[in-house]
Amino acid sequence: MKIVADRNIPFLENRIHGAELIALPADEIDRHAVEDADALVVRTRTRCDSALLRGSGVRLVATATIGTDHIDLPWCEANGITVRNAPGCNAPGVALYVWSSLLRSGFRPETHTLGIVGCGNVGGIIAGWARCLGVDTLICDPPRKDAGHDDFEYLPLEEVLRRSDAVTVHTPLTRGGEYPTFHIIDRHTLPWLKPGAIFVNAARGEVADTEALCDAIADGRIGKAVIDTWEGEPRIDPRLLSLSDIATCHIAGYSVEGKQRATRMALEAVARTLGVEVDLTGLQGEYKAPAALSAGRIVGAYDPTPMTAALKADPAAFETLRNTYPLHREIL
After folding, report:
1. Rounded CA gap, 42 and 52, in Å?
2. Catalytic site positions
3. Which of 121, 123, 165, 204 has its CA 20 to 30 A from that of 173?
């Protein structure tokens, strides 16, 4: 059997027994490369659809990411291809990024209110840390509210935006269904923001309208912007880059432990689907919340400003900076 994988997925080497592993740059994972493959292990940079997979022997697409918007799920299902992602793998790393960025941007836990839009794996950990820090927190998540979850009080988006001193978005990217999130932050919703609020996008670039976001920063509606995910990556908007206080190259979840979890989950999918043996030795398991947390501990654990300086100095290096990023460590 043959498995084609993105070579920038760490911790894969020498872990699959009974199958050949071919590691390639994302831009070389094409129809020729996958035509005789049994499985793909990818990141968001590989579009998995009929153009790539039609006529191939691929039975499994395992993405070492939370999101699946780079995969044509209906087409894969219709063609008997199993798809597996890594939900929650990097959530603690993203939480650390978001909280460090908020605190460095002037968020005061003792007096400010935090708004969280989307309270799944990432938003849930951010909300849990908010409780530890004694932060007044408002949450918008219509799907969870409709599903009957009662772990938090779920509020309308307008109320969350109007009452929050900082807003961080953690929804998946969806363009259809009852609650589409494409451009959920746009010219209609941005005027609801409390003037001078901090805005964080470490979800998907397309959940926010870039042009509207730039205008809201320029006119002071947004006091400080923290942007890790961008529309059109890796070709990012220069105006949004220049206006953002913290700007990074989609690395919020790039922690050592998060990468280990993602690889572990991809390997488990390969083992289940192909029936091969995999070695999971040394790979991080399920996240457990830290016993104690403080603002000082968070700020001391991670600093996003060096990457901000590097990206602003050379925006064209977005992909290179992302692929060579020195993974940070989670608070464990």
Report:
1. 13
2. 204, 233, 250
3. 165
Closest CA to 16 of 3, 30, 31, 34: 3
User: pLDDT per residue over 102-135, tens digit each?
Assistant: 999 999 999 999 999 999 999 999 999 999 999 9
Rounded distance between C-alpha atoms, residue 236 and residue 218, angstroms: 18
Helix (H) / strand (E) element for 52: namely: helix 50-53
Rounded Cα gap, residues 62 and 267, in angstroms = 8
Q: What angle do CA 51, 56, 61 make, to 5 degrees?
A: 80
Beta carbons of 91 and 195 less than 8 angstroms apart: no
Paired tokens of 228: 């890790």
Q: In degrees to the nearest 10, what's the CA dihedral of 231, 236, 242, 245?
A: 60
| Side chain identity, residue 231 | E
Segment (H or E) for 93: helix 91-104
What is the per-residue pLDDT across 195-221, written as a single tens digit (0 to 9) for each?
Answer: 999 999 999 999 999 999 999 999 999
> Quick check: helix, strand or coil at residue 182?
coil
- The 3-class SS string of 277-329 reads EECCCCCCCCCCCCCCCCHHHHHHHCCCHHHHHHHHHCHHHHHHHHHCCCCEC
What CA–CA distance (Å, rounded) separates 157 from 184? Answer: 9
DSSP state of 65: S
Separation of alpha carbons 137 and 54, rounded Å:
47
- 251: which 2 tokens? 């690395």
**Three-point CA angle 19, 44, 125, nearest 5°:** 105
pTM value > 0.85: yes
Give the C-alpha distances (Å, rounded to integers) separating 90 from 106, 112, 145, 165, 263. Answer: 25, 26, 24, 25, 11
pLDDT band at 55 (very low <50, low <70, confident <90, very high): very high
